[in-house]
Amino acid sequence: MATSEYQVTGMTCGHCEMSIREEVSQIPGVDEIQVSAQTGKLVVSSANPLDDAAVLAAVDEAGYSAVRA
């Protein structure tokens, strides 16, 4: 299993987490998503390595910005 961790800026609440989870879950191959507004961390797990650009684009689509941690 591959795990990628990102630092997200702009999240403040559970709704923020839900928005990001919703967008990232649409990426093919994503198995698990852990996102925390409190820590600003997004952890994405998948069977195969994911394209960072796809994850960052999904976070951007949700209205936030992220960088690979």
UniProtKB/TrEMBL annotation:
InterPro entries: HMA_dom, HMA_dom_sf. This is Copper chaperone. GO terms for molecular function: metal ion binding. It comes from Microbacterium sorbitolivorans. It comes from the Bacteria. Residues 2-67 form the HMA domain.
